Amino acid sequence: MLKTSFSAGSLMNRVLTLFLLTLGSQQLFAQQTVPLPMPPAATAPLPGAPPSAATPSAPAAGAWRSTAEARISDARPLRPLGPPAAASTDLGLTPDEQRNIFVYDKGNRSVCHIMTRSVQRDAVFGMLTTESPAEGSGSGSVLDSQGHILTNYHVIEGATQIDVTLFNAETYPAKLVGQDPVNDIAVLKIDAPVDQLVPVELGDSSNLRVGQKAFAIGNPFGLERTMTIGIISSLNRMLPARSGRTMKAIIQIDAALNRGNSGGPLFDSNGRLIGMNTAIASRTGQNTGVGFAIPVATIRRVAPVLIADGKVTRPDLGVSRIYLTDDGLGVASLVQGGPAESAGLRGFQLIREQVRRGPYIYEETRVDRSKADVITAVDGTLVESADDLLTAIERKNPGEVVNLSVLREGKKVDVPVTLGVGD
């Protein structure tokens, strides 16, 4: 069975070293480490053409993390799509290639490279704890001209230092504005000049179709603003989050994603953000053609709240423990004085009894489950798991009223509950 692997992770020096030993003759990192002369437009090589003999040789392992002064940006201004016939006569590009270039030119300057530093703690012989520095790499998108950066929560989780590199190779320290582990979303902020911030254009994920093209841009293995192309393979997937909850309405894609792509944008054919790449299904931790992205509908709902409040305030039902039954979700215990208890919902009852044993009388307490309510639906929508119940409740706001359909001693009863404010 495939397991889900989050694609951020630490910087993999051994993997990079192997890449360089194998691909050294191809100058894989040349454009990031050495300013290349700009040839006249009439003689510019086609995209993807092999480098000339004058191209500098590939740098040593780790040189991709060189300073900004030693690198150049390959970001180019957006060029509008012209008539296919006219464009094809210039460079021999097909309409499909023109579309790919259009999406990259429009979106790549909105993509960030996020580098993190943290402290890794390891137990030695089960007693002593050692600390060692650790580094991580991920991707992000510029949200607005105020410097807010969108990324995955798991990219920056536990980080003590966060740096964001923009399209022009300028790096800025970032601070965490807000995080939502349930949806694996985090928002950072950098202090960068407005002319260096190119906000991503948000699209619409409500009308996506299986089979339409999807473009992922990110920083796999630290290779900045790499674009891969695929299709939307499926919609409405469910994905376990690190919080223990389940993320819903997830987009499945076959565009190649690897470590470092986490937090990067997923674009449609018009260069609009339709999702944020978050995970892959893999036994090895490398791309298998099964990737997952958080839909932009979730981002539109969560990101503004994180920017304003730093966290997502969720409504609270006041049910502290439930258990699965054949009929629905049994209520085991309630928060004392909480919304559900105030509305009359019932959980397990504690029965105190006096029992005589010989000449002595003891008081014993037993749990009576027979009178506990069983929740079957929320506002008419059936719930079959704890996650179903939480998802239904979190569609509401604190102070709103939900109608719980319950079974009480074999009879159907509706219980209206005014939601409170959660933690």
From TrEMBL:
InterPro entries named in the record: Chloro_Bact_Ser_Proteases (IPR051201), PDZ (IPR001478), PDZ_sf (IPR036034), Peptidase_S1_PA (IPR009003), Peptidase_S1C (IPR001940)
GO molecular function terms listed in the Swiss-Prot or TrEMBL record: serine-type endopeptidase activity
Compositional bias per record (Low complexity), positions renumbered to this chain: 51-63
Bias type Pro residues, positions: 40-50
Domain PDZ per the UniProt entry, residue ranges: 315-419
Span list, region Disordered: 40-66, 73-92
Name listed for the protein in its UniProt record: Serine protease
